[in-house]
From TrEMBL:
Source organism: Azoarcus sp. (strain BH72)
PROSITE patterns: T2SP_E (PS00662)
CDD domains found in the cross-reference section: PulE-GspE-like (cd01129)
Domain Bacterial type II secretion system protein E: 381-395
GO cellular component: plasma membrane
Protein encoded by which gene: gspE1
Protein name: General secretion pathway protein E
An example molecular function term from Gene Ontology annotations: ATP binding
Family (UniProt): Belongs to the GSP E family.
Record keywords: ATP-binding, Nucleotide-binding
Amino acid sequence: MAPLPDHDALATLLLAAGVIGQDQLRIARMEQQRAPRPLADLLLGLGFLSESALRGVISEASGRRPVDLARSLPDDAALALVPVEFARRNQLLPLSLDTDQAVLTIATAATDDRAVIDKLLALCPQLRRVECLLAAGPELGRAIERHYGQAQSLESILHELETGAPPPPQRPGGEGHPQALVRLVDALLLDAVKRDASDIHFEPEAHHLRIRCRIDGVLRQTRALHATYWPAMAVRIKVLAGLNIAETRVPQDGRFSFDVAGHAIDFRVSCMPTLHGENVVLRLLDRSKGVVPLSDLGLGAGDLAALEAMIARPEGLILVTGPTGSGKTTTLYSLLAHLNTEARSIMTLEDPVEYPMPRLRQTQVADSGRIGFAEGVRAMLRQDPDVLLIGEIRDADTAAMALRAAVTGHQVYSTLHAGSALGALPRLRELGVSPEMLAGNLIGIVAQRLVRRLCPDCAETVAIEPWARPYLATDDSAAATRMQARGCARCNFQGYRGRLALMEILPVDTGLDDLLARGANRSDLLAHAQRQGHVGLAAAGLARVRAGDTTLEELLRVVDVRGARR
């Protein structure tokens, strides 16, 4: 099964598509002479090519439908059907199994998939058909290792611990904590990555350790272990994060990278002393997922056009607001990726840098020593940038520098903690930004939340209940229906799979500029925005509920919709 395409053919395709240039290809060829590796791997590693661009070029050349493995979660049933040795040998990943139709969907990086289909049908005679999707070769190998797991599973490690001698008490600063517990921590981290968790919570109780993962924005308990395991497990996490293992009475913060199937997952660690021991929370950041294209943010045509019009303006400030975990960084990187051309100089100041991007000059505040956001902006303005990204406006100095950069002819992007788009305006005033400074320099504000997306395999239609009718019903008819979560094996019996962004987009037009300059109150600003067709977060969310993308229960969990009742 030959991969598509060979090195020369791939180079020709990428050059013809304008994805890379001759200089970039020349650099990759020189690296190839020093350390022979596949051309695609080199281009990805050098930052000259993204996996999404590679998939797109190969998909167009082969006529095969692409799949993004970083955002796909294979069925357990599909993985169980195909042995890991077969998957590795034939470079394929089972994605889903339709037992009713006896159809297995797989991801491959091959041109001619007839041979592997024949092998699969011989291996699994219960199958009637095999459907193949196209994956980029580098991500396919990682995905196979990631989803099939390590050689020794979490269950086998737990069995080893349960049948062996109890773990000895861990002395502060002691060495030689049990190797099985080291492997247990590593396996739990891998398990969280496979579940696509954003956070892991290790929560000690009097007699047990509760482990919860935040998946699609909701905490779910994934494990409960005996309390005696936790001291040594906590030491393992602290060693990874470079923390003081002897200190258990004060909070500590750290970070580390953990290799999963050949690529590094970043973890931010927070330790907090509690009644029954240290509570440890880890935030996961998988940089291999890359940047979501602007067109894939799930915006309607009108909102997408409004957002594109905002970023087309040559200078001014664009803010993205929302609570922690609402997808602000994802949106900002999508905007920067849209602007990232040879004709622009883009610089960022972040804490931390979440997604390294080619051509961007990215500075991590935590690693930059003596400078903060405000000092960093001053330094960046001397670097001849066209576009600046400031990770967060946290204080008056940073707010002043962001507006100063906007006034001096730069596009500036940043985030702010505010409940809505209009709520960002009084927040800026609290930070000392005058109405006169805002007027004429604020391009627009995007407020957003993330809600879970209904699982398409098990969502069901129900009649709108009396409690839901004020939000959804267009008339008094009791026959009106809505979508409801049910739960199936495909979504781990949650009823939801993946998340979607709700966005409130507020472009600042001349009328709003005039109101800002006069220091108008929130009611006047809202009235003007509504006259221009502005749609708030609640209304945007209700529209997604009516469209069947999510449920009313999920929307109420995330957004206050009282003002949007019919």
